[in-house]
Predict the 3D structure of the following.
Amino acid sequence: MNEKSIHVSGGMSMLLINILLIAGTIATFILGARTDNGFLAFIGVILLTVWSIHCAGFFVVEPNGSKVLLLFGKYVGTVKDDGFHWTNPFRTKRNLSLRVRTFNGERLKVNDASGNPIEIAVVVVWKVVDTFAASFEVEDYENYVTLQTETALRHSASSYPYDAEDDVVSLRQNADEVSEHIKTELQTKLGIAGVQVLETKIAHLAYAPEIAGAMLRRQQAAAVIAARQKIVDGAVGMVEMALTRLERDNIINLDDERKAAMVSNLMVVLCGEQQAQPIVNTGTLHN
C-alpha cells in the first residue's frame, strides 16, 4: 500500500458545532434541574458524552507536517494540509514531520580499498516523502536512517583507496564522486522507508592515528618525486630546444663531447635547488 492523501472537515466549522453542543448540554442540565426531570438529565449526560467524544476529533497540522490517520488499526490516509482540522474522533492520529532533516554521522574507523585504516564521517540531508512507508514499513524510520547510513558509508569507503594516481578514483581526490556513490546506495536502502536522500557530503576524512605519520611521510615523498619528475621533463625539453636552435640557426657547431658538456651544465642549472653561479670564460672557446 502507498500513501494516500485525504482531506477532512475544517476545524472552525466543527468548533462552532462543538460550542452549540456544549451550550445545549448545559441548557439541558439546567432545565432538568429546574423541572426535576430525570429524563432531561439523562439526555444531558448523553449530550455531554457526545461533546467529549466530539472534542477528540480536533487536531492541528503545522507547515511541512502531516497526520497519519488510522481507524481501528486500518490506514485511512494522511492529512498534509496545514491548519486546524476535525476528523472522526475514533481515528488515531500520528504526527509525522515532512521537513528536511540533516544527519551528522559519527566518525567511523574503516579500511579503504588498499586495506589502510581510515576515519570517515558523512552528512546526509533527507526528508520523508511517503508517510505510509515511514510509519508502517519499518519499526523506527529515524533509527533506520541512522543504521543504513553507517552501513552505506562503510561499504563505500571500503570500495575506494584513500589516495591514488590521477586516473584512479580515490576518497581524497574525488570526494564529490564518492559522495554521489554513497547517496545512490543509501537511497536504495532508504526507499523502503519512504525517505528521500537529498544530499550527502563527506564531512571528515583522515588516516587513522596509528598510521597517520607514516602515510604523511609517504605522501610527502610522492609529492617530491612528482615535482622532480616535472622539473626533469621540463629541463630535458629546454635542453633539446636549445640544441635544436643552435644547430638550425648555425650559431655554433659543437661536437659530441661539447654537446655532452653543455647538456650536463644546463641540466645542473635547470634541476638544481640552488641558484647557479655563472663563471665567465675569458679565454678561447675551448678553454
In short: The chain has three domains: 9-96, 101-207, 212-271. The radius of gyration is 39 Å. Residues 123 and 279 are 61 Å apart (CA to CA).
